[in-house]
């Protein structure tokens, strides 16, 4: 599949109308993913699930959502069981996770369900339509932006599953010991608004990278935030990676909207010391198309997902500046085990399901625990406005889990 011709034209126009005929990679990635008319997440091109471009923990069955629900119930209890508790899911995809959570809470925790106000924040109009259709049996508020939520208005929990990795990133490179930024421009032979060019079989020839001074001092300041001394001899010439300033902006807005409660972020990523290891010299940027992973963001433009791993140190430290206290950071396998996934695995041997269904569910649970896959995801919990007595109460997901014997 080739690139979206109108999206390529829009990006080309943006470049041509820029003062230096170039745009940051963050702008390019934002347009490729979120352009209102043609971006990957704004059109029917987005294809999530086992048969799509990628799948998440949600697509392995309801267990992931049900175990998250157990954590949300405890959060409600720690906060003193307020009469109104908001769950704000940011980047809810097709609405599967919300459906699993709501079904489980309605059945198992009716008192909490009665207090629950479920809010989805979803930028993609196509995905908002899917969410409305899938969740029509429940009362759910669906908003297009965090801007639609009033400051200091939420008592409850903001949470996301594989959202931050899809926020647009800046790319940088080290040249002669100096921090430089990677920009996107047009190839010399490109003809803006040429339909023949945009439908050519070689769309990767449309754009090329150029290197220049950073577009903002925030790029250098980022490394002060995460405690990485990038300009050192240990980093090789040509070392390149990503900086996610959008994640900091996003977390700042979340902290502003939260009056009292929690922020729970689940995603693939590392602490800064591992993210910016000198041996990881080409960064973490990846593209996904039909479950094929590659690192060329200049093909299949508007037809493929583009992601970068999450720097959890940045979220933790920026969160502290925004008034969010770190509760804990762990891996998804340990988080879900502490919430009862091990008990679910053990109970499989006592069910009367057909053997094919049993094996399918066992495989799904194992995938949630796989330390080299979904189980290796990071889980960061932060809080704001908790009373002193509430800060001593440990969230279930961050206790030491009992590990079952897996046959």
UniProtKB/TrEMBL annotation:
Gene Ontology MF term list: protein-arginine omega-N symmetric methyltransferase activity
The record's InterPro entries line, in alphabetical order, gives: NDUFAF7, NDUFAF7_sf, SAM-dependent_MTases_sf
| Keywords tagged on the record | Methyltransferase, Transferase
Report what the protein is called: Class I SAM-dependent methyltransferase
Q: Which organism is it from?
A: Pelatocladus maniniholoensis HA4357-MV3
Which domain of life, per UniProt?
Bacteria
Q: Name one GO biological process term.
A: methylation
**Per its UniProt record, what PANTHER family does this chain match?**
PROTEIN ARGININE METHYLTRANSFERASE NDUFAF7, MITOCHONDRIAL
